[in-house]
Amino acid sequence: MENARQWLAAARSVAVLTGAGISAESESPTFRGPNGLWRNNKPEQLATPEAFARDPHMVWEWYDWRRSVHAGKEPNAGHHALAALERGKSEFLLITQNVDSLHERAGSRAVVHLHGSVWRVRCLECGREEANEQVPLVPLPPRCECGGMQRPAVVWFGEQLPQRELQAAVNAARQVEAFLVVGTSSLVYPAAALPRVALESGARVIEVNPEATDLTPHAHAYLKGFAGEILPALLSQ
Ligand code: OAD
């Protein structure tokens, strides 16, 4: 912990990659844990363009439920510690795979959403994307001003990540002095490649997770534990 603390304190530029684990202490379900979303639901039936084309109503019901779950959650000590870290750094980027927007609600500003947001919707006809925070959604599926059906503005399996966001994340991984990886199983690419890019570019890579991942043997420091406990201690000055 002490080495990692010093690396982060000394670094002028820092990037952070987060996954569902950072929201676990806000009582949001992760994807692959014992009560994970992918334990009881099949990704190919809910999170693919084919599933949506087959049954948009069913897919929307699932996202409407997830929106209602996220709406009732508050950011935890881990989210707040990262927001405070950003305020102390001149160069900072928070790269998240999460769609819940708890980072922004904790005060993080420089946030890149690699997998989109459940709070945004996109029209299948005209392509217009807009914020939508209505819970529950009426009507379901929601409709655009142009009359077209809207979809959740999230990245589904088999879809490309938003290119601008991915490029910003890769650039940060190439440039920063310290790269912190929090609460991700490091199984889903291309997000899982970002810590490797940072390692190859000479950054100190620090991982926070109660369970070891494929990244663990390569990280300069592995801090085993919960984000809400480790991050405040790691990032306090
Ligand atoms: P996962 O559910 O795959 O992994 C969550 C990770 O968080 C695991 O490694 C846990 O050990 C760890 N974890 C659990 N509780 C924690 C805590 N309190 N503090 C820190 N870590 C904790 O979630 P992701 O890695 O985010 O993609 O999954 C990546 C992508 O797979 C998601 O964005 C989603 C999913 O399919 C799409 O929907 C495109």
Summarize the topology.
Layout: H1 2-10, E1 13-18, H2 37-40, H3 43-46, H4 49-54, H5 56-71, H6 77-87, E2 91-96, H7 102-106, E3 111-113, E4 116-123, E5 129-131, E6 150-154, H8 163-175, E7 178-182, H9 194-200, E8 204-208, E9 221-223, H10 227-235
Parallel strand pairs: 1-2, 1-7, 2-3, 7-8, 8-9
Antiparallel strand pairs: 4-5, 4-6
Helix pairs in contact: 6-10, 8-9
The chain binds 2'-O-acetyl adenosine-5-diphosphoribose.
2'-O-acetyl adenosine-5-diphosphoribose binds near residues 19, 33 and 208.
Strands of the widest sheet, in order across it, are: 3-2-1-7-8-9
Gross geometry? elongated
Fourth-level CATH superfamily of the largest domain: TPP-binding domain
**CATH structural architecture of the largest domain:** 3-Layer(aba) Sandwich
Number of strands: 9
Mean pLDDT figure? 95
CATH class of the largest domain: Alpha Beta
Assign the structural class, choosing from mainly alpha, mainly beta, alpha/beta, alpha+beta, or little secondary structure. Answer: alpha/beta
Cofactors, ions, other ligands:
2'-O-acetyl adenosine-5-diphosphoribose
Give the termini separation. 13 Å
What Rg do the Cα atoms give?
18 Å
- CATH fold-level label of the largest domain: Rossmann fold
The H-and-E topology, N to C, reads as: HEHHHHHEHEEEEHEHEEH
Q: Quickly count the helices.
A: 10
**Number of structurally distinct domains:** 2
Parts with pLDDT < 50 across at least 5 consecutive residues: none
Biggest sheet record: 6 strands, parallel
How much helical structure, as a percent, in the residues? 25-40%
Percent in strands: 15-25%
